[in-house]
Amino acid sequence: MKVLAAALLLLCACRLQAALVRREALAKEATPPAEDDFFTRHFQSFSDFMTKDLAQKLQVEELRSQAEAYLDRANKQLTPLAQELRSNVLGLFSSLLELGKGEGQP
Questions:
Q1: Which H or E run contains 23?
Q2: Whether the model pTM is above 0.90
Q3: SS3 of 59, please?
Q4: Rounded to an integer, what distance in angstroms lies between the CA atom of residue 28 and that of residue 69?
Q5: CA angle 13-14-17, nearest 5°?
Q6: CA-based torsion, 32, 33, 34, 39: positive or negative
Q7: Which helix (H) or strand (E) holds 45?
Q8: Chunked in runs of 10, what are the mean pLDDT values of the chain (106 residues)?
Q9: How many angstroms separate the CA atoms of 60 and 106, rounded?
């Protein structure tokens, strides 16, 4: 009788373990692709872009020459404006000084 009870207990335990394994296998199949795969794919494509494609598109010397040309153009356009601003500020201060001197004398 004890042997029969032990065999029945062993059979139930094996059956429960098999059902648990089957349930875990079904859960793994039913789940959509993990977010890690999504991020891994996009990170890999971003990494490829940064190392291969971007390096080819951006040439250092070309950027340097473009920056120098931009600065030269900006300097040529802003120099007259800076000179005019300087003369206007000096004129303003000299007018204020003359006005202050005129009010100081009765």
A1: helix 2-30
A2: no
A3: coil
A4: 60
A5: 85
A6: negative
A7: helix 35-48
A8: 66 62 62 66 82 74 88 94 95 92 70
A9: 68
